[in-house]
Design goal:
- The protein is an alpha/beta fold and about 425 residues long.
- It folds into 2 domains: about 140 residues, Rossmann fold; about 280 residues, no CATH class.
- It contains 17 helices and 13 strands.
- The strands form 2 sheets. An 8-stranded mixed beta sheet has the order 7-6-8-9-10-11-13-12.
- Strand 12 and strand 13 form a beta hairpin.
- The two termini are about 25 Å apart.
Length: about 425
Amino acid sequence: MLKRKMTDYLKRWKEIKNKKCLVVQGARQTGKTYIIERFAEECYEEIVEINFKQMLSAREIFSGDLTVDNMVMAMRFRFPEKKITPEKTLIFLDEIQECEEAVTSLKFWAVDNRYDVIVSGSLLGIDYKRASSYPVGYVDYKKMYGLDFEEFLWGMGVTDEMIESLRSFLEEKKVIPDAINNQMMNYYRHYIAIGGMPEVVQKYIDTKDYREVDVIQRNLLQGYQYDIAHYATAEEKVKAEKCYLTLAKQLLDKENHKFQYKEIEHGARAQKYYSSIEWLLRADIVHMCRDVTDIRYDLDDYSRDDFFRAYTTDMSLLIAMKDLSLKQHIVENTLAGNTKGGIYECAVADALYKKGYDLYFYKNVTTKKELDFIIQKDGQVVPIEVKSGNTRANSLASIMQKKDIAYAYKFVDGNIGENADGIITLPLYMVSFI
């Protein structure tokens, strides 16, 4: 069983008095259902799990009066073997987007507060708006992602003590011994090639066979395409899939990683395809990094919706859009050109996204200054440059001299360092620990 940070979050949620229902959001196949089931087995005497895709008739439980007593009584008749007891039973409603009345019922579970209720499902951002009465104010949200690099290290047998020693190098800005740094970069390259989808990571741990890993990755990619076909409106189906499948070309084959509609089809324009990008974003199928016109807080005030980069929600999916040989080049560190820079940029974007940061970038055509990423941390803007080697970040150095910015990060295939301009140089894998 892969160790996930989400388990500790769920245990803390359980201890809250007068808690709301918990909505676990996230892209498909990130391990939401599995983690919730394991949490319930460990922390409750009973779990009542209803998957609305598998148990279509279970929707009848929510077809009458939505009082907790009525719903619990209906569950007892439906599952006579279950001992549904307040405080000792977890109610888990999976794929809840398939039952609007179950969404509405969350208000009444929260007000009653005798039972702990967790709900999950794919594409929640799209389907919840169709609910007859959405329970605003009665639910808490938690986003779940694929494994981050730290969770991957746990799966590879790296201990918490070893990871804490890495954090100490970061906190003290001390050079990491070469033997440790080289091994961590080796782990990181494997992680990039594998991605963070739990099924893919587990397959690698079990087999160490990249061909078998590739099969799982491609199956997951096909599943995402199925979701687009199944959930998107008739008007958006084909356009959304075209946008999604062009991401590898947008991010790995070009020097400029701005999303360009012409890569979808000749003569394509935003007017035709932007609604499809928005659909993919709401569906947790892509995440976006928006251009800003100025590097100052609050970045959202300076962001542009018409100038952006789009990334897959996990590296597993991006890598599956390319040939199997890409994995070998990543692991053996033989990448070159735009692909090398693009891969590491995507890996850093993936890490920042999984840490919950909103992503922005900066590009000034007139001054020829650009930054790969900008995030907001502790009320400050933090510029970030990504280097596939360890070359000078000229734009970053120039901006740091002109702007009132406390510090910036430069992620490199190298070691830790800090200069007088406030630029903190870190190994690429350290993005997971900032």
